[in-house]
Amino acid sequence: MVTVISLGGSIVAPDGVDVQFLKDFVLLIRSFLEADSNRRFIFVVGGGGPARRWINAYREINAQSKDEEADWIGIMATRLNAQLVKAAMGELCTQEVVINPCQVDPLTGHVLVAAGWKPGFSTDYDAVLLAERFQADAVINLSNIEKVYTADPKTDPNARPIDKISWAEFRALVGDDWVPGKNVPFDPVASRHSEKIGLKVICASGKNLENLKNILAGNDFVGTVIN
Coil, helix or strand for 33? Predict the structure, then answer.
């Protein structure tokens, strides 16, 4: 059984590195692997606060900033975060950080860690491609929001949380275009491909590890299911 988790950079490094979260996350993953040695995990790590700060700095410096250059800056932040997660996993992760989800060897360890690939989309799309490659039935998308809302709850007091939504409805919410550093529950490019291949995505709060435990165990959980 392969479980793919899109681990938002806002969880790993919202500003600096959240050391306590990583310690607790590693312990949780170890507990599941001890209970089932046949289980495998793939973590695709985002850029988080560092990516957004560096992208914003680039745009301030260069009035004619280009999306492709901004994307590359964000991608480098994902690779730094991913290398940290790989190291934190220790002997559980025996393979190098994956930067091209279309060129990845079969899993040899219990954990595989991936980072950003190339401009045009976020690490969510990499997670979808890896789920497709390793025949996972879902992607667990962990970010700093508990559920998907009908609108941005920070700006719209009428925004309502959603428990379940179709891909067509979700894509109407987030649009089809990717902008480097764009803050949406799930990348529009990844959403388009998920709908195409019939992949289920679960959006949930990354900080709530008890809730993640319920998701991994197949129990009731708080979050939004997109399929």
Answer: helix
182 pLDDT more than 70: no
Task: Please list, residue by residue across 187-219, b when 16 or more beta carbons sit within 10 angstroms of its beta carbon and e when fewer do.
Answer: bbbbbbbbbeeebebbbbbbbbeebbebbbeee
Residue 203 CA: distances (Å) to CA of 28, 162, 185: 18, 10, 7
Mean pLDDT of 196-223: 97
Q: 95-104, 109-118, 153-162: which has the minimum mean pLDDT?
A: 153-162
Distance CA 118, CA 18 (A): 26
Residue among 53, 49, 48, 54 nearest 9 (CA): 48
Going from the N-terminus, what domains does the chain have, and what CATH number goes with each? Answer: 2-226 (3.40.1160.10)
Residues 40-73 have pLDDT tens digits of 999 999 999 999 999 999 999 998 999 899 999 9
Q: Which structure tokens are listed for 122?
A: 């976020």
Measured CA distances, 158 to 149, 155, 167 (Å):
10, 9, 22
Helix axes 188-197, 123-133, angle to 10 degrees: 20
Give the β-pairing of 200-205 and 224-226: antiparallel
Tokens found for residue 31: 């507990």
pLDDT on residue 176: 85
